[in-house]
Amino acid sequence: MNANDIFHGITDIRDDLIDGAEKIPGNRKRWLPKRWLGVVAAALAVVILGGIFLRPGGESTAYAIAQAEYPEMAPYPFLESDEYDEAAFDAWNDSVMNQRRNLGDTSSLQSFFARSAQTFLTGTEGENRVYSPLNVYMALSMLAQLTDGESQNQILTLLGSDSMDALRKQASDVWNANYWNDGSVTSILASSLWLNQDLKFNQDTMDTLAQNFYASSYQGKMGTESINKAFQDWLDEQTGGLLKEQAQDIKLDSSTVLALASTVYFQARWYSQFSEENTSPQIFHSQNGDLETEFMHDWGSADHYFWGDRFTALHQPFDNSGAMWFILPEDGMTPEELLTDPETVEFLFAKDKYSEWKNWMWLFVNKAIPKFDVCSQLDLREGLENLGITDVFDPVRSDFTPMTGNREEIALTKVDHAARVVIDEEGCTATAFTAMALAAGGPEDKEVDFVLDRPFLFCITGKSGLPLFLGVVNNPVGN
Amino acid sequence: MDDGSIVELYHRREEQAIIESNNKYGKLCRSIALRLLGVRENAEECVNDTWHAAWNRMPPERPQSLGAFLGRITRNLSISRWRQEHARKRYNGIEVLLSELEDCVPAPGTVEEIVERRQLAQTISTWLDGLAAEDRRLFIRRYWYCDSVKELAEEQRKGANALSQRLLRLRKSLRTFLESEGVEL
């Protein structure tokens, strides 16, 4: 094999790849130097189980009973460096290859994402709403590992898995495909279990959770200040302090048998840069009236521009990772209504939109994106019950034998989910666009305006292409 | 004219097919040939040969993407032309003879070579699928369309140096991927 062979190999790559890289005709715009922007986002899901069999105990601090070990990634060799360090690149490249996973057919996952998004992102009543599908997926997967019988079947059915073996494998692959911690991008799905010290637990189950779900387990006396502090510190640490306020509301009282916490933390920089000089106030037309807020502007940069019958969409890629997608409903339609549109749902959860979605063009786009910091806190119980997860909430019908070894009257008493996505010049990012009017077949010009000045949807996808965060922005100024 | 209509002209053996191909894809093919060969006259000959090759291949072929089909022919013709020129300039009798004798065998080589080349192209396509959209576009623009780094830097609004480093990383990444897929390098 020599360079000629590689040349011929490249010559014969698939047609769609070649067509997808076509040049945009027309004049190039003068560009101004811009500085990096970034995205910071975090989510947590906490499942709390209560029971009636516990005996009082004396321990007051939490101690680890199973520890998850995360893969180590070599540091990202930053482009800003003048000297190219081949060894550093090789080390980084090796760790990237180690995280590579073939997720295969993800249609069952996509079905769960679609159903859960429709459940948890509706009923916003003009408020912002953020939800992490992958976060809830990981929490439910672990819950399935802790249950048996019909309790487990209901979860497997919702997640579209044939068996616990299949779900374990899938969850492990999903975790690894989304894990990224190299100094340039942080994307970590963390999980932990907090057990009452009087609970007789099954060590094999805890070890399985550590190995397959990267979840650590701790045990201590519930209802004490020390375990609440340890629990909240863990949540703070895993969410980069972004959800401190929400974490403080979650207490492990003395009736708690077990708390299952799952978090997502994501931080990345934009691939292309915005200029702070181009940020200026602009009107956002919310459902509750007009608001003035800061909009980031970028004129004439080349971008992928997507559209469907009821929406237009733009994506803002991250450096060395996934992308943030902005989906603007057609005029007169709310983001929640758009979530019931099958075409939009198909678009939203397509793993590789470039190959799976035909309606896109590489165009010069004039963007106006509002800066925002959106946060929401949800009780998932009712939504999960609507999605068919009922037995785990019933102490008589629930089956947690894999966790305890015995049939005890234990039930889920609380399922909290909190998420926050921040977009501004300093670190957290989100963008809003108001789409131009489109011709039936798509844009006719090679340059379009895309101004997000009314409620819209966003989706953050990581390296795997799966949705880490979904959100409805009704008010970029805040709740 | 759309691609389907131009392909139809080839199949009806109408010479207008070449005029329409030149109108729509002449610029693309000239650009590829000129960037590979660096000599306008040679590039022009390659483009003319491209229309000739397309005329011979359609029918029976019906390419889905005419741009990719014609651009690919231009790349193949350009690399052959470059080899011939390279050999001639070096006055290496054997190399010139071998280069001329390549005309006696059907390009690009034996059945085995063709299969290997297809497999390699598939592997590279799979690697491209796994890249971030911007990296994928960058690699294809540089190594398929042969855009200069300076042009790409202007379009992507990045420094040429930074882009060169990114391309270097992509080449290294491709190498690692090919090795992991069992391609003998």
Structure explained in plain terms:
The complex is a heterodimer of chains A (479) and B (185). Chain A is of the alpha+beta class and 479 residues long. Chain A has 2 domains: 256 residues, Antithrombin, Chain I, domain 2 (2-Layer Sandwich), CATH 3.30.497.10; 150 residues, Alpha-1-antitrypsin, domain 1 (Roll), CATH 2.30.39. In chain A, strands 3, 8, 9, 10, 11, 12, 15, 16 and 17 form a 9-stranded mixed sheet that branches. In chain A, strands 1, 2, 4, 5, 6, 7, 13 and 14 form an 8-stranded mixed sheet that branches. Chain A is globular and about 65 Å long. Chain A starts with a helix and ends in a 6-residue tail after the last strand. About 9% of the residues of chain A have low confidence. Chain B is mostly helical and 185 residues long. Chain B contains 9 helices and no strands. The chains are: A alpha+beta (479), B mainly alpha (185). At the A-B interface, helix 1, helix 2, helix 3 and strand 9 of A face helix 4, helix 6, helix 7, helix 8 and helix 9 of B.
Our estimate of the beta-strand percent of chain A is: 25-35%
Provide the CATH superfamily of the largest domain in chain B.
RNA polymerase sigma factor, region 2, helix turn helix motif
What's the structural domain tally of chain B?
A: 2
What's the assembly state of these chains? heterodimer
Q: Can you tell me the residue ranges of chain B where pLDDT is under 50 for at least 5 consecutive residues?
A: none
Number of helices of chain A: 15
Which blocks of ≥5 consecutive residues of chain A have pLDDT under 50?
A: 26-37, 51-60, 426-444
Instruction: Estimate the mean pLDDT confidence of chain B.
Output: 83
Largest sheet of chain B: none
Report how far the terminal alpha carbons of chain A are from each other: 60 Å
The best one-word shape of chain A is globular
In which range does the helix fraction of chain A lie? 25-40%
CATH superfamily of the largest domain in chain A: Antithrombin, subunit I, domain 2
Percent helix of chain B, as a range, is: over 70%
User: What characteristic shape of chain B results from the CA principal axes?
Assistant: globular
Number of DSSP strand runs of chain B: 0
